[in-house]
User: What shape does this take?
Amino acid sequence: MFNNAAAYDGYVGRWSRLVGEQFIAWLNIPFGRKWFDLGAGTGVLTSVILQQAVPESILGMDLSESYIERAHQNVRDERVQFKVADASTAVTDSPQFDVVVSGLVLNFVPSPQETLETMKLLAKPAGTVAAYVWDYAGKMEMMRHFWDAAIVLDPAAADMDSGKRFDICKPDNLRAAFEALNLSAVEVRPFDVQTVFKDFDDYWQPFLAAQGSISKYLTSLDDQAKNALRQQLQKQLPTNNDGSIHLTARAWAAKGIK
Assistant: This one.
């Protein structure tokens, strides 16, 4: 599902950066530390770490060759290394990372708990393990409106609704997953950013090349069904007099100390 890096950046990458800035500030990691970015994607979170945390080094890994190629283009810094690989390949008997983070990844892996266990193994003793995910069932409004409109027209779309499918994106479940790692000082909190679209097309067009569940759903529709969905969204979205659409994007974040 993740093979169009440019489309991802235009779809949610721009909003992920805003959440990432709040997330890294919340972690409050001292300068000069070694970081691991699991599921580094197009390098959005890595670039925020560079700007805000002044790291000694960052190793970013992702399974998508397209995304890592984009990350190389987006982030050029001698402190950063990107690899196309599974994060488990970096686990050693002597963990080397002070901070292990993951942005918008846990709901896309086969086992979120196993991925979190890998993150813990990568962290040094007293290292920080942290992640954030979109609040698909609630205040990630650009996607919530999409699925609500789709379900009005096609009740079967509920089976693909990210809010229904991804339990790890609910705060109680995210906390439970971190507490199951036996980390200390586990905290969970929301981060909200404003997603402002200049008009309906600015909102709609990125969906047509979207990555993930929405892409899979849209490609299953014929042109008539897509047009009906477009019209339903135009009816239900809160549109200002100037045509702009102002929505909230909420992410849930969790952190703990090994």
Notes: Residues 201 and 230 are 10 Å apart (CA to CA). The first strand starts at residue 34 and ends at 38. The mean pLDDT is 93.
